[in-house]
Specification:
116 residues; mainly alpha; 66% helix; 0% strand
Length: 116
Amino acid sequence: MRRLLTPKWLAWHAFALAAAVVMVRLGLWQWHRSEHTHSAQNLGYALQWPAFAIFAVVVWFRVCRDAVRPPADAPPKARKTRAPEPAAAVVPVTDEEDPELAAYNRYLARLNEETR
C-alpha cells in the first residue's frame, strides 16, 4: 500500500479524482441544458457523462489494485542471469514421435513453398 502513496501515484490519484468530478459536473451541465432546450441530444450527453465518470473510477481502482497485487495470470519476474542464452534450434518432429504433428508441419511447409 505504501507504493500508492508515492508522489507519482498521488498525482495520478488527484488526476483520476479530478477527471471523475469534471465528468459528473459536465453531466449536470448537460442535464440543465436539456431542461432548458428540451433537446434529446443534451439529455443523452447528460446520461453519458456519469457513465464515463464511473468507468474512470473503475479503471483507477483496478490499476491501483494491480499495482498492489499483480494479477494471478501475470508471469513471474525473471531473475537476472549472467547473459541471455541463445534460442534453441527448431528440431523437426518425426513420424515416430508424433505422426499427426509431423503431417501438419509438412502441410505448413508445403503451403509456405507454394506462396513463394
